[in-house]
């Protein structure tokens, strides 16, 4: 799901919009809902990177107050999805990992926010 | 359209979903704030700078020549800058964040240029013999530095900058003999006032 391109998703959305709401909705909802970014640690990683050009592994770790293992597992998942990019380098002899948000990742976060806002509006109109 | 779809999709449990969505948005906003803002602006340092400024205002008011008056305030500026650098550094260290991480760097980059302009204008005004205009210029440009630097900090910081700018503008168009009082009110009064608020609300 994560690897899907924005264009493809948009087309899919458009298609489901034209269809009868009742029949289409559960499928659309599931397709739009980004589980990858929904998980708290991963949501925090993406949010933190959205307001910084890049953050080092240790900066992220301190900021989010997570363990090394936890951060690397979740960062890896985001990396595999193409949501964040990762550059490894050495400063002296110390290995340094620098993360940044990719355009795909930024779109995913925006989409997730839109989704949450839509949910709030939906219940308000009720 | 989306809300309409969602109403149908999860009509069984709309309130809980709504709450969860709100909670998620709040979580994103808080994370962004924490990750994106420079929180090492020192409150106690502001109070200390305010107190030394009030002391400088008393000493400066007793000087007979404009250049001695100006030198007193320049000495105070040097003291205040040392206090600011030291307290900012130690607050950043206490919060385990670096001055040179993203937000810290942006704070410094946007804080320094207006101060640099201030130094140049001070030289020019002193050279022209218009020492009286310096108070307004200092307050205005320091305020500008705090506003622009404060864009990357907690919201109270740009507010303090704005107060400095208002005071500076007033100082420019009031009799220049009031300059010393304006400096005391700004660098003394505003620093103590906002320093106290930051110290109480934002941990030192």
Quick rundown:
The complex is a heterodimer of chains A (126) and B (204). Chain A is of the alpha+beta class and 126 residues long.
- What percentage of amino acids of chain B are in beta strands? under 5%
Low-confidence segments of chain A, given as residue ranges, are: 1-30
Which CATH-level-2 architecture of the largest domain in chain A?
Orthogonal Bundle
Total number of helices of chain A:
7
Run of helices and strands of chain A: HHHHEHHEEH
How many alpha or pi helices of chain B?
Answer: 8
Give the N-terminus to C-terminus distance of chain A in angstroms.
31 Å
Secondary-structure-based class of chain B equals: mainly alpha
What number is the mean pLDDT of chain B? Answer: 85
Largest sheet of chain A: 3 strands, antiparallel
- Approximately how much beta-strand content do the residues of chain A carry? 5-15%
Structural class of chain A: alpha+beta
- Please name the two chains that share the biggest interface, counting residues whose Cβ lies under 8 Å from a Cβ on the partner chain: A-B, 42 and 32 residues
What Rg of chain B is obtained from the alpha carbons, in whole angstroms?
22 Å
- Report mean pLDDT of chain A, rounded to a whole number: 78
Quaternary structure: heterodimer
CATH level 3 topology of the largest domain in chain A: Arc Repressor Mutant, subunit A
Give the total of domains of chain A: 2
Q: What is the CA–CA distance across the termini of chain B?
A: 48 Å
In percent, how helical is the residue content of chain B? over 70%
Descriptive terms for the model:
heterodimer; A: 126 residues; alpha+beta; Arc Repressor Mutant, subunit A; 2 domains; 3-stranded antiparallel sheet; elongated; disordered N terminus; B: 204 residues; mainly alpha
Topology:
The complex is a heterodimer of chains A (126) and B (204).
Chain A: H1 6-18, H2 21-32, H3 35-38, H4 40-50, E1 55-56, H5 57-64, H6 68-81, E2 84-91, E3 94-101, H7 103-125
Antiparallel strand pairs in A: 1-3, 2-3
Helix pairs in contact in A: 1-2
Chain B: H1 2-9, H2 14-36, H3 43-61, H4 66-94, H5 102-128, H6 134-150, H7 156-173, H8 179-201
């Amino acid at each position: 799901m994560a690897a899907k391109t924005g264009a493809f998703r948009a087309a899919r959305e458009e298609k489901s919009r034209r269809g009868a709401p009742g029949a289409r909705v559960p499928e659309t909802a599931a397709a739009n809902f980004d589980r990858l970014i929904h998980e708290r640690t991963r949501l925090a990683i993406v949010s933190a990177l959205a307001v910084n050009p890049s953050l080092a592994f240790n900066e992220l770790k301190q900021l989010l107050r997570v363990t090394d293992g936890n951060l690397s597992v979740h960062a890896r998942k985001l990396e595999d999805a193409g949501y964040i990019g990762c550059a490894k380098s050495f400063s002296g002899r110390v290995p340094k990992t620098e993360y940044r948000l990719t355009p795909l990742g930024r779109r995913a976060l925006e989409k997730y926010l839109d989704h949450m806002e839509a949910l709030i509006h939906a219940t308000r109109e009720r | 359209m989306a809300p309409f779809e969602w109403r149908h999709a999860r009509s069984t449990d709309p309130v809980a979903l709504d709450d969860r969505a709100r909670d998620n948005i709040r979580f994103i906003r808080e994370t962004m704030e924490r990750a994106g803002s420079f929180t090492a602006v020192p409150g106690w340092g502001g109070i200390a700078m305010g107190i030394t400024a009030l002391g400088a205002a008393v000493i400066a008011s007793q000087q007979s020549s404009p250049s001695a008056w100006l030198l007193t305030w320049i000495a105070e500026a040097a003291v205040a800058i040392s206090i600011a650098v030291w307290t900012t550094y130690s607050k950043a260290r206490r919060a385990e964040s670096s001055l040179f991480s993203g937000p810290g760097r942006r704070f410094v980059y946007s804080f320094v240029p207006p101060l640099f302009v201030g130094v140049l204008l001070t030289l020019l005004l002193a050279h022209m013999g218009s020492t009286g205009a310096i108070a307004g210029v200092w307050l205005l440009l320091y305020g500008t530095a705090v506003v622009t630097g404060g864009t990357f900090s907690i919201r109270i910081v740009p507010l303090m900058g704005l107060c400095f700018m208002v005071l500076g503008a007033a100082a420019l168009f009031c009799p220049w003999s009031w300059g010393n009082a304006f400096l005391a009110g700004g660098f003394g009064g505003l620093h103590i006032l906002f320093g106290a608020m930051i110290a109480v609300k934002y941990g030192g």
